Amino acid sequence: MYKIIDNNNFKTEKDKYITLVEKVFANDSDKIANILEFEKHLNYIFASPYNNQAFWVLLIVNETLISMVNFFEYDSLNHDWCLFTTFTNKKYRCKGYAGKVLKYGLNHLKRYQYNKLICGIENTNIASIKLHEKNGFVYSGYDWDELAPGFPKNHLGFIYKNFNR
Ligand SMILES: CC(C)(COP(=O)(O)OP(=O)(O)OC[C@H]1O[C@@H](n2cnc3c(N)ncnc32)[C@H](O)[C@@H]1OP(=O)(O)O)[C@@H](O)C(=O)NCCC(=O)NCCS
Predict the structure, then answer these.
(1) Quick one: which atom of ligand 1 is closest to the CA of 120?
(2) Is 0.70 surpassed by the pTM of this model?
(3) In terms of Cα–Cα distance, which of 105, 90, 12, 26 is closest to 58?
(4) What's the Rg (C-alpha) of the chain?
(5) E-strand spans in the chain?
């Protein structure tokens, strides 16, 4: 089942879903698998003072998180969005789940107004580069923080090109 968390249900449902993520992160040594940082990121993207539009897609089977991705609007004036933290449970990698969850998220994004969608990937993360290239992202020729100031340094900046709605 796909679960969407957005500004309507984040406050009421976040604890349940963060617990699912925590279980998966506990078995993973990847630096992305840091529950405190991840929760901080979620609190940031769903924080009402920023009035950000954001959503988090989770693929859950039998109460286990299989894969997830989140999106947020970082520049509401220009409707520029960023895709952040694509993650698949280690036990379920290379089975196409990140591709499925990403496609689902990109389709859900059509409900919102957006002009640009970016993401950043470390140049050593071949799995993530392949995943995003297969799903309509192209390397911009710039780093992530050059595409939009404030994003992490030393990541290749990718731009989504499939804007057919
Ligand atoms: C990146 C990540 C989300 C991919 O998840 P996944 O569910 O295994 O991805 P998919 O099975 O949908 O694979 C997507 C494509 O990437 C390729 N791929 C996946 N893992 C790969 C690997 N380790 N090496 C090379 N290619 C890989 C797949 O072959 C597939 O392409 P194909 O359909 O042509 O075969 C997963 O490896 C992960 O969670 N990594 C840790 C967190 C992370 O780095 N996130 C991204 C941050 S930018």
Answers:
(1) 48
(2) yes
(3) 105
(4) 15
(5) 2-6, 54-61, 64-75, 80-88, 116-121, 137-143, 156-160
Overall residue count recorded for the chain in this entry: 165
- Expressed in angstroms and rounded, the spacing between residue 2 Cα and the centre of ligand 1 is 19
Determine the residue type at 47.
A
Q: Would you write out the chain's pLDDT as a tens digit for each of its 165 residues?
A: 999 999 999 999 999 999 999 999 998 999 899 999 999 999 999 986 666 799 999 999 999 999 999 999 999 999 999 999 999 999 999 999 999 999 999 999 999 999 999 999 999 999 999 999 999 999 999 999 999 999 999 999 999 997 655
Pairing of the two strands 64-75 and 54-61: antiparallel
- Ligand 1 atom, smallest distance to 88 CA: 39
Pocket of ligand 1 (CB under 6 A): 30, 32, 67, 86-88, 93-99, 121, 125-128, 130-131, 134
Tell me if 98 sits within 8 A of 131, measured CB to CB.
yes
Domains of the chain, each with CATH number or no CATH: 2-160 (3.40.630.30)
Q: What angle, 0 to 180 degrees and rounded to 10, lies between the N-to-C axes of helices 97-109 and 126-134?
A: 50
